[in-house]
Amino acid sequence: MTDQTSDWVSRSLKSVWHPCTQMQHHARDQDRVPLIPVSHGRGAWLYDHDGRRYLDAISSWWVNLFGHANPRINAALRDQLDMLEHAMLAGFTHEPVIRLSERLSALTGGVLGHAFYASDGASAVEIALKMSFHAWRNAGRSDKQEFVCLQGSYHGETIGALAVTDVALFKDAYGPLLRATQTVMSPDARQARDGETAQDVARRAAADVQRLFEQKADRIAAIIIEPLVQCAAGMAMHDPLYLQLVRELCDRHEVHLILDEIAVGCGRTGTFFACEQAGIWPDFVTLSKGISGGYLPLSLVLTKDQVYQAFYSADITRGFLHSHSYTGNPLACRAALATLDIFEEDNVLEANRARAASLGAAMAPLADHPRVKNLRQRGMILAFDAAGVDKTFSRRFFANATRNELLLRPIGSTVYLMPPYILDDEEIAGLAARTRAVFEQTLAEAS
């Protein structure tokens, strides 16, 4: 480590409180967790001040779709900077937010025709929850105040979003602050009993929703689901049949369906919206992360005209009185428009099918490893579970990965890949080889 790098690390540890981090793990040498000052990024790679590089195999927390310093997104932002950096969206509007709203609506076939903007995923979840509750209230159904989430679900760490999160590490400390919610079985295919398929698990999980709805639907506003992949639950993947069955139950029992596509949307699972693979649309869908290509904070909720009309009134108290200072920021919207342009111009979804197949083939030999369980893939998300590891596994794996030019950060004992959509065959082969090498090294340390 050069003097310059050491200086950046020291200054950061003194002044920056890093997210999702026990800061002492960076400060104590024996824990061997590196803090890496990033100098710049190019394509799929991040570079530190010492010239070392790291393949960003998790897209910097799932946001970067088309590489760092993408020239087309850069050009769009430079153009926008000369016109408008920001204007409040209450009483004003602007071209980027209008065009983005129209294009996203078109991607749903006009079913979700109204877009409400915020800055981060948790805020989008908060908006969807509040909209659902308030829409029922405006419809004279004020008893419908409860929400339902899945076991192992993660939807953010603000108070409302945390209430529909079922990850003890994030939630337990704040329990006294949270509104009680109903939790139903996850459709995670790893729960298959002997002889069961992923669809059988989906049916069992949907039956659990049915039992709850039959008892309490008159008090339930909405159920919230990450479609196809529950990411923070360890990339828990489920069959699209589950979404079809829950959509039918929501229609039958008059419960809103919120699909959290913050992580799984924007092509991650193979279709632009994950729910397309089930052939259904929710009442609300949340987007963030990849929607701006990983450039700027942006999130949004898309919803149906029926929900929008529930708030459309001369009475201000019936309006949706929720706001963020940077709602619909023109720069963020312009980055999102440039991202959508790349999807169209490069036929990204089709190209990703071939890229995902190459990634799967490169990682397939790991399925035979005695310490690997449940090697699985959905689109550009691939994961496996490490068997027989201790609670330090994730931290040690991350540290070893950085020494092997990889940015990989397991979730507990689950190693996952969620790379940008630009990897070539050489990078895919290198990613697979280095992932295995890091896995072997991390296992050997504990033996």
TrEMBL record:
- What is this enzyme's EC? 2.6.1.62
Question: A Gene Ontology biological process annotation?
Answer: biotin biosynthetic process
In this chain, where does the modification N6-(pyridoxal phosphate)lysine occur? 289
Annotated GO CC locations: cytoplasm
Q: Name one GO molecular function term.
A: pyridoxal phosphate binding
- Residues the entry annotates as binding substrate: 61, 154, 289, 323, 409
Site annotation (Participates in the substrate recognition with KAPA and in a stacking interaction with the adenine ring of SAM): which residues? 20
Cofactor(s) of this protein? pyridoxal 5'-phosphate
| Principal localisation | cytoplasm
Task: Give residues annotated as binding pyridoxal 5'-phosphate.
Answer: 121-122, 260, 324-325
Q: Where in the cell is it found?
A: Cytoplasm
Top-level division of the source organism's lineage: Bacteria
Listed Pfam families: Aminotran_3
Keyword set, alphabetical order: Aminotransferase, Biotin biosynthesis, Cytoplasm, Pyridoxal phosphate, S-adenosyl-L-methionine, Transferase
Top enzyme class, one word, equals: transferase
Please list every transmembrane segment annotated in the UniProt record, as residue ranges: none
Question: InterPro entries under this entry?
Answer: Aminotrans_3, Aminotrans_3_PPA_site, BioA, PyrdxlP-dep_Trfase, PyrdxlP-dep_Trfase_major, PyrdxlP-dep_Trfase_small
Q: In which pathway does it act?
A: Cofactor biosynthesis; biotin biosynthesis; 7,8-diaminononanoate from 8-amino-7-oxononanoate (SAM route): step 1/1
Say what the protein does. Catalyzes the transfer of the alpha-amino group from S-adenosyl-L-methionine (SAM) to 7-keto-8-aminopelargonic acid (KAPA) to form 7,8-diaminopelargonic acid (DAPA). It is the only aminotransferase known to utilize SAM as an amino donor.
Task: Please give the HAMAP family that the UniProt record associates with this protein.
Answer: BioA (MF_00834)
Q: Which NCBIfam families match?
A: bioA (TIGR00508), PRK05964.1 (NF004624)
Q: Which family does it belong to?
A: Belongs to the class-III pyridoxal-phosphate-dependent aminotransferase family. BioA subfamily.
What quaternary structure, including any partners, is listed in this protein's UniProt entry?
Homodimer.
> What protein name does the entry list?
Adenosylmethionine-8-amino-7-oxononanoate aminotransferase
